[in-house]
Specification:
By secondary structure, the chain is of the alpha/beta class.
C-alpha cells in the first residue's frame, strides 16, 4: 500500500477453502446488476480480481474490449492467468497493483469493477476515488460487497451466532468493515459521485439445496480452522484452536440439516462518472 495507507490485512487469505468460493462466482450470480451496462468493445478493470473466474466471465461480455484484472497477490494472479488460458479468453491480462494507487492514467477504462473488495480496506472511500479517477466520463464504477450482519440462516444455530460475532471481531481488529454492504451507498457519496448518477440495489446468494449446503458449510468449516481468518483469530487473541474446531463442527452440523437455508446479503452500487 501507499505511505498514507498502512498495509491491509486480507481477512480470508488465499487458502483453497477461500479460492473454492471465488471460483464459484460468475457474472450472473455475482455481477447481475452490472450486466446491463456492459457492451462489446468496452475496456474494463476488475480490482481485487482474485483467481480471475469472475474477471474472465466479464471479459467475455465486453470482448473484443480489453480487460485488466488487478490484485496485490502475485500467487493468486498466477492462478488467474491459468484460468484465462484454460478458458481460451485472450482479451484479459492480470497485473499486480494497489487499490489506493492504481497503476493507470486518468480516464483509462469504461468500467471499473470491484467485487468483495471494499469490505477488506481500511479506507474504502479512497479506493472508490481511485476507481473514479481511472474511469472515463460517461463510464461506470460498479461495487458489490457482502454484509455479514445481514446474513441469516435456518435452523437457528448458537454456534453460527458465535462464528458471526468472531468474524466481526477479527475484521474489526484488522481495521476492516464486515458490514460493508449497507455502507456502499454512503461510501460512494463520500467519494464524490453525483447522487443522481447512482443505481443502488441489493443482491442475495442463497444456499438451500443439499449440494449447496454441503459446499457452503464445508468451505466455512475449513476456513474456521485452516485459513488466514483462523490464524488471525488466534493471533488477535480472540479464539483458540478448540473454539475454532467447535465453529467448524457447528458449520458441518448446519450443512447436514435437511431444512437448512443460508442467505448472504450484498449491497450493490452502479455509479456513472
Amino acid at each position: 500500500m501507499t505511505d498514507t495507507h498502512p498495509a491491509e490485512v486480507y481477512t480470508h487469505g488465499h487458502h483453497d477453502s477461500v479460492l473454492r468460493s471465488h471460483r464459484w462466482r460468475t457474472a450472473e450470480n455475482s455481477a447481475a446488476y452490472l450486466l446491463p451496462a456492459l457492451q462489446p468493445g468496452q475496456r474494463l478493470l476488475d480490482v481485487g480480481c482474485g483467481p480471475g473466474n469472475l474477471t474472465v466471465d466479464l471479459a467475455a461480455r465486453v470482448a473484443p474490449g480489453d480487460v485488466v484484472g488487478l490484485d496485490r497477490s502475485e500467487r493468486v494472479l498466477d492462478i488467474a492467468r491459468e484460468e484465462a488460458a484454460q478458458a481460451g479468453v485472450a482479451n484479459v491480462t492480470f497485473t499486480p497493483g494497489d487499490a489506493y494507487a492504481l497503476p493507470f492514467e486518468d480516464d483509462s477504462f469504461d468500467v471499473a469493477h470491484a467485487h468483495q473488495l471494499l469490505q477488506h480496506l481500511a479506507d474504502p472511500v479512497a479506493a472508490l476515488r481511485e476507481l473514479r479517477r481511472v474511469t472515463r466520463p460517461g463510464g461506470v464504477v460498479a461495487v458489490r460487497d457482502a454484509d455479514y450482519a445481514g446474513m441469516t440462516w435456518y435452523p437457528p444455530s448458537p454456534v453460527l451466532d458465535e462464528w458471526s460475532a468472531l468474524y466481526h471481531e477479527v475484521t474489526q481488529a484488522n481495521g476492516a468493515e464486515a458490514d460493508a454492504g449497507r455502507r456502499l451507498h454512503s461510501w460512494v457519496l463520500a467519494a464524490g459521485f453525483d447522487p443522481d448518477s447512482l443505481v443502488v440495489t441489493a443482491g442475495v446468494w442463497c444456499y438451500a439445496s443439499a449440494e449447496d449446503r454441503e459446499w457452503w458449510a464445508g468451505l466455512w468449516a475449513e476456513r474456521c480452522v485452516a485459513s488466514d481468518f483462523a490464524q488471525q483469530a488466534v493471533g488477535h487473541g480472540l479464539a483458540d484452536e478448540v473454539a475454532l474446531e467447535q465453529l467448524a463442527t457447528g458449520w458441518r452440523e448446519w450443512g447436514e440439516a435437511p431444512d437448512g437455508w443460508f442467505a448472504v446479503l450484498h449491497g450493490e452500487v452502479l455509479a456513472r462518472v
